[in-house]
Amino acid sequence: MDEASKRPVLPRTWRPRSVRWVAYGLALLIVATLTVLAVIMPGEWGPMDRFLMVGMGLVIAAALHLLARPRLVAAEEGVTVVNSIRTHVLSWAEVVDIRMPAGEPWPSVDLSDGTTLAVMGIQSADGELARRGLAEFRALLHDRGEAQEPGYS
What's the maximum distance between 2 C-alpha atoms anywhere in the chain? Predict the structure, then answer.
C-alpha cells in the first residue's frame, strides 16, 4: 500500500486468511496424526499398510491445499484469479466490476463478455480484511479497468 496515495502498489495479492489457517492447520494435524499412528501400530501391520496410512494423510493434505490455494493477483498487465482448481488470467479491460452482496462467501467479477467469475481469493469470513481488499481492488479497477464509453464521464 502506497501511504501517500492510499493506493495498493502493484503487483498486489489478496489471499483469504481464515480458510488458509484452518486448511493448513488441519493438513498438518492429519499428516502428523496418521504418521504417528503408522509408527505405533501393532506388528501385524506391514510396511505397505504403514506407507499407505501416511500416503492417505498426504492425499487429504493435498485436498486441503486446494481450499487454501485461492488468491487474486493484480499486476500492471492484468488480473489473475486463482480459485481451487482453475486459474483465470484476465486483462484489466475484461473486468467490468467486482461485487460482493451481503451474505455471499466471496465476491464475483463481472466480465466484459457478460459472464461472472467467482473470486475466492477474498472471503467474507475474513471480515474487515475482506472489505478492505474489496475496496483496494475496486480502486485499482477504477484506475485501470475498462475505458469509459464515448460521451460519458
Answer: 80
